[in-house]
Specification:
CATH superfamily of the largest domain: Porin
CATH class of the largest domain: Mainly Beta
Number of helices: 6
Radius of gyration: 38 Å
Distance between the termini: 51 Å
CATH architecture of the largest domain: Beta Barrel
Largest sheet: 16 strands, antiparallel, barrel
Length: about 525
């Protein structure tokens, strides 16, 4: 603006000078013409002086503004805001970041538990499966933190709660150092968040062998095509000692996992992945901790009963697992195999509650080996699965999120199928009497004069049955993704029970002859889930 005014002043002055020169050199100019020209020159000079005053005023105002800016403090608001399902706040320099995280999952399950064989009632129930809230973020560039609490069903439990240092890099990829409460690095399905697994619950052997979170330390390195993680762990957050008020040695576990993805690329918007992995976990029971037990619920639903279980038998165990996954555009297939070697206590006497001790019932009983595996596949319509470098499924992408209020979008549909097996029946262990008989539902003798409503005859006590059996479950499902953060799940599953050890008939029970546990029973169930996460 200043330069424009100077330029205008110079132009006016030059114009006035030119007029004067032309006027003086014009031969026919009269006195009247000279007066008019002089008046024009005077007017131009007045205009120039006015412009000069404006320039001086502008200079003074600019100087005053600069002085005020020096005196006023700088703006302290150093904040960037993004929206990734929930607000993500970060400093402008990237030193700090914080995001609110959480999820809500509401389930309904209706299951036929083959009461005539299992004595367990049918199920028609709802459950707040998960209701979590927490925060995650970054402090001083390289320190990541996560803290999340689950409030489902009026129980407060800490889930992920850890610090992770990412300041050490091998090339462009950080070496992760993590400490806190988090999942052990075992199995593809376990490390995948429950927000992104294909069915309502994970395959039976993963829950039966307690592959989950523990407090510990882990180091990990994940790249596009391979990864390795290993750590040492103590107990879970909810650990309770065997003897109330007494704390001794806690359980100790070592876990490791390696993965390789020779194919991991995006072609024309489709992700292509071929993934292989293996993992191991060993556990040793502390001197005041309950022995380890293995059990699975019917039809893989959390609201059904445990129909295959061993009771608390092991003071140590070792898990071995193999995994393979393929993702090709909308189609995915995955499978895993696991083997668990259980170590029975070898001392003559073992701890007991109430104290002091009891004779070890597992002397001369061979250590059992258990097996589990699954194979699953899915097909996306209107969306696609995603793969993360930590060797797990990530958040699915929906091409056209549902926006019916705007007249567009229907979301995405995922069709799912799975077959899984958990085998808790070891022949040598069973034949040696290791699988002790357990009271099944309802577990108490009926009152005098009670009548069995199924037969109309006097009610007899429920039997004690050895439950070290095998469960085979097939599942089909459909997941409707309304958008990237919301989905409705529908599952139908059936479990076939078998391979139970022989249980001798007992006087006064409904068992008239020796039976093989729950052999021949079929558990059928339909489940639904509404889920949102952020």
């Amino acid at each position: 603006m200043k330069r424009g005014r100077r330029h205008l002043s110079r132009c006016l002055l030059a114009g006035a000078s030119a007029i004067g020169i032309l006027a003086s050199g014009a031969p026919g100019a009269g006195a009247q013409d000279l007066k008019e020209i002089q008046a024009q020159i005077d007017a131009l000079q007045a205009t120039i002086m006015d412009l000069q005053r404006q320039v001086q005023d502008a200079k003074a105002q600019a100087a005053a503004a600069n002085a005020a800016a020096v005196k006023e403090p700088a703006n302290d608001l150093d904040l960037k805001v993004k929206w990734k399902g929930a607000p993500e706040l970060s400093s402008a320099d990237g030193k700090f970041k914080m995001k609110v995280r959480g999820r809500v999952q509401v389930d309904y399950v209706n299951a036929d538990q083959d009461t005539a064989i299992t004595y367990a009632p049918d199920v028609a129930a709802t459950e707040l499966r998960r209701a979590r809230i927490g925060v995650e973020g970054v402090a001083w560039y390289d320190i990541k933190y996560v803290f999340e609490v689950d409030f489902a069903n009026d129980e407060t439990r800490v889930r992920d709660a850890y610090l992770q240092y990412e300041g050490i890099k091998l090339g462009e990829t950080p070496l992760l150092l993590r400490v806190g409460n988090f999942k052990t690095p075992n199995t593809f399905e376990n490390v995948t968040s429950d927000r992104f697994i294909d069915a309502m619950e994970r395959p039976a052997y993963i829950t039966a062998w307690e592959i989950d979170r523990h407090i510990g330390f882990m180091t990990a390195y994940w790249s596009d095509h391979f990864g390795l993680a290993a750590g040492i762990f103590g107990d879970t957050v909810s650990n309770q000692p065997l003897f109330s008020g007494s704390f001794g040695d806690e359980n100790v576990a070592f876990a490791a996992r390696g993965t390789v993805a020779p194919i991991n690329r995006v072609v024309d918007g489709d992700t292509h992945v071929l993934h292989f992995g293996a993992s191991v976990r060993t556990r040793d029971v502390g001197n005041d901790q309950p022995f380890l037990q293995y059990r699975a619920r019917g039809a893989d639903y959390r609201l059904t009963n445990f129909f295959v279980q061993t009771g608390r038998i092991a003071d140590a165990d070792t898990f071995w697992g193999l995994e393979a996954v393929a993702l090709w555009g909308p189609f995915s297939i995955q499978g895993e195999y696991g083997k668990l070697d259980a170590d029975l206590p070898s001392t003559a006497f073992i701890a007991n509650n109430p104290p002091p001790v009891r004779v070890n019932p597992f002397l001369n009983v061979p250590d059992p080996d258990y097996h589990g595996w699954y194979v699953a596949g899915s097909w996306f319509f209107g969306g696609r699965q995603t793969y993360e470098n930590e060797g797990r499924w990530g958040r699915p992408h929906v091409d056209n999120p549902m926006r019916w209020s705007e007249g567009s979008g229907w979301g995405a549909l995922q069709l799912v199928g799975r077959y899984d097996v958990v085998d808790l029946s070891d022949t040598a262990f069973n034949n040696a009497g290791g699988c002790q008989a357990q009271q099944v539902f309802p577990g108490v003798s009926p009152p005098a004069g009670a009548v069995d409503p199924r037969t109309g005859k006097p009610a007899l006590a429920a039997p004690r049955i050895q439950q070290c059996g095998e469960q085979k479950t097939w599942l089909v499902g459909a997941n409707w993704y309304l958008n990237d953060y919301t989905r409705l799940m529908f599952n139908y599953a059936e479990s076939e029970l078998g391979d139970y050890p022989l249980t001798l008939a007992q006087a006064g029970t409904t068992l008239k002859n020796s039976v093989f546990g729950f052999d021949g029973a079929t558990i059928k169930g339909f489940g639904m889930r509404a889920q949102v996460d952020w």
